[in-house]
Amino acid sequence: MSGGTEPGRAPGDKQEPPRPGSVRPTSRRLLVAIAVLGVAVGVTIVKVIESGGGVAPTVSWLSLVAWAFLAALLFAAARNTHQRIQVRRERVEASRAVFLLMIGKASAFVGALCTGVYAGFALSFLRAMGSSGPRNRVIMAGAAAVVSVLVVTAGLLLERACRIPEDPDETP
Question: Can you give the pLDDT at residue 17?
């Protein structure tokens, strides 16, 4: 490889273009941007509902349990996939690998959005933290935001587990 740069690329840009048929890893910046958007959506939902005289939504235990179950499934899938592809170097059917990769990416995106929305709910209820009702809402929404972060983490781990390991025998 020559020392020059490709057209349209900065000299210090270390990110290589993806190989044909490959998918770029999920950007952490994009996930943070999605979470920030989610905060704005969560705060707005509460304000709109309350300004209309309604009661803002609460986060139920069932939703916490469902999110935790999803996170556990994703962590298990990530561990299993990592063991098969990275450790034992087994071949995985292409359609299955793509399915797992897309599940990981989608989980990271949806988890980031829900993290933001739940954090927005919690922030909205902070102003009335003195009474027990809003305190419970803040606790439940905060717990849901934390569990949503676990979904993001598990999704990213599943995505990472789907990477094809570098072949030590291949030299460019």
Answer: 61
